[in-house]
């Protein structure tokens, strides 16, 4: 494995335009950041570069606008939270390429910080389009990748730029890889994974490899509904990707072959709508009403999950067990998080969790600080765990 070039190898940063790729895909409610963990974790690197007289030009994505300029996916509302965490002003440019970006970068003085608008407003970002990468590269002298949590994407700002400009790993990128390697390279067994959340189509495939690496797999959140549907259960109006039923069945078979115990919910909290305090009832998973929406795992499922955590020596977790942002549909996530935190504090469990919303959920449960390690990465963390090479990480490896 070739080592990375890091900021220590970048020489003097004074007067240099540093294109710093960060992950600011933070949980928001309207225009308010509800969990600033991802912001706080990149602050030391921004300060380090700025304090050396570098001009910090931040590149980031938000949401999945797929090349369209969707106002709901603007990074502008993140600026106040970023500026507050940094304790310095942060300028903002309404585009990440072209005249708006060029003028804002040209106006930067040494040590100042600028955030460019969502890279995913351009289709070239996700296509890793060379012309778009060149346009991004025009605004930097060097490139620093700090977005471990987006390193599983081979996009222009996460991979392409590393081939255009002198490229370095940021401090958080280094710290994440170090911590995950130390904590999980040879994990104490049995290992339990909890995978929940809402990004079903982009995460379901990796479960196929994950079942060969872990001893128990809890499938929760929106992800569980697709599996319940694959087992022939009616899931009403729940978040469910029915066209992935075959994939789910294949994963259950692979788990069986790998002797990985799969734990699916056996009861669910079903609501009439996706709203805090919506009318709700707890039902067995084979009795979900047609008009109902599964928003959380029920108490019997929580009991099973807690008992499984008690058997495990290592826990890896990505994706909440329910719609934890909406009371009372946070109950299963909060209970499981607190249970894992207690086991960790008692020295009985190594617990590693990651993901934008997962970290927010752990913090909401008051459990985050007790986990052994909390990563900013969700999907990237799971792919790393699968043993996959992450394009954003590979592109940083020092050549020659
Ligand atoms: N049953 C459910 N129905 C609908 N949404 C759900 C359900 N369970 C969980 N969710 C939603 O899943 C979202 C989090 O999923 P996601 O996969 O994005 O996790 P994450 O920790 O942010 O990981 P990543 O960093 O990869 O995005 C939350 O917003 C939560 O409301
Ligand atoms: O939230 C995340 O996991 C990262 O920001 C990557 O987002 P994506 O799944 O939309 O690529």
Automatic annotation (TrEMBL):
Domain of life of the organism encoding this protein: Bacteria
Sorted UniProt keywords: ATP-binding, Cytoplasm, Glycolysis, Kinase, Nucleotide-binding, Transferase
GO molecular function: ADP binding; ATP binding; phosphoglycerate kinase activity
SUPFAM superfamilies reported for this sequence: Phosphoglycerate kinase
Alphabetical GO biological process terms: gluconeogenesis; glycolytic process
EC number: 2.7.2.3
Residue sites binding substrate per the record: 23-25, 38, 61-64, 120, 153
Assembly and interaction partners: Monomer.
Name recorded for this polypeptide: Phosphoglycerate kinase
Lineage: Bacteria, Pseudomonadati, Pseudomonadota, Alphaproteobacteria, Hyphomicrobiales
Gene coding for it: pgk
């Amino acid at each position: 494995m070739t080592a990375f070039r890091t900021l220590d190898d970048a020489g003097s940063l004074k007067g240099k335009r540093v294109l710093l790729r960060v992950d600011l895909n933070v949980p928001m409610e309207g225009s308010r950041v509800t969990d600033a963990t991802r912001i706080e974790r990149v602050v030391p690197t921004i300060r380090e570069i700025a304090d050396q007289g570098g001009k910090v030009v931040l590149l980031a994505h938000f949401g999945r606008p797929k090349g369209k300029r969707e106002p709901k996916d603007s990074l502008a509302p993140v600026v106040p939270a970023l500026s507050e965490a940094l304790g310095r002003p942060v300028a903002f440019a309404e585009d990440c390429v072209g005249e708006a970006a060029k003028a804002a970068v040209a106006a930067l003085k040494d040590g100042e910080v600028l955030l460019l608008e969502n890279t995913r407003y351009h289709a070239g970002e996700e296509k890793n389009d060379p012309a778009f990468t060149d346009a991004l590269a025009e605004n930097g002298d060097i490139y620093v990748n700090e977005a471990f949590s987006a390193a599983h994407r081979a996009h222009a700002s996460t991979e392409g730029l590393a081939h255009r400009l002198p490229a370095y790993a940021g401090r958080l990128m280094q710290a994440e890889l170090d911590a995950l390697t130390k904590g999980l390279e040879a994990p104490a067994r049995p290992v339990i994974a909890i995978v929940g959340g809402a990004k079903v189509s982009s995460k379901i495939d990796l479960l196929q490899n994950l079942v060969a690496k872990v001893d128990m797999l809890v499938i929760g959140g929106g992800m569980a509904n697709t599996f319940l549907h694959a087992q022939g259960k009616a899931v009403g109006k729940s978040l469910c990707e029915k066209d992935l039923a075959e994939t789910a069945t294949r994963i259950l078979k692979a788990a069986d072959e790998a002797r990985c115990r799969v734990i699916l919910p056996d009861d669910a909290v079903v609501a009439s709508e996706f709203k805090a305090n919506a009318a709700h009832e707890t039902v067995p998973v084979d009795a979900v009403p047609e008009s109902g929406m599964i928003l959380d795992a029920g108490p019997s499922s929580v009991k099973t999950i807690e008992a499984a955590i008690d058997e495990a020596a290592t826990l890896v977790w990505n994706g909440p067990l329910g719609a934890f942002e909406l009371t009372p549909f946070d109950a299963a996530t909060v209970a499981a998080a607190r249970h894992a935190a207690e086991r960790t504090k008692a020295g009985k469990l190594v617990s590693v969790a990651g993901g934008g919303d997962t970290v927010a959920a752990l913090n909401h449960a008051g459990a985050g600080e007790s986990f052994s390690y909390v990563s900013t990465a969700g999907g990237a963390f799971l792919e790393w765990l699968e043993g996959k090479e992450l394009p954003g990480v590979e592109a940083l490896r020092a050549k020659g």
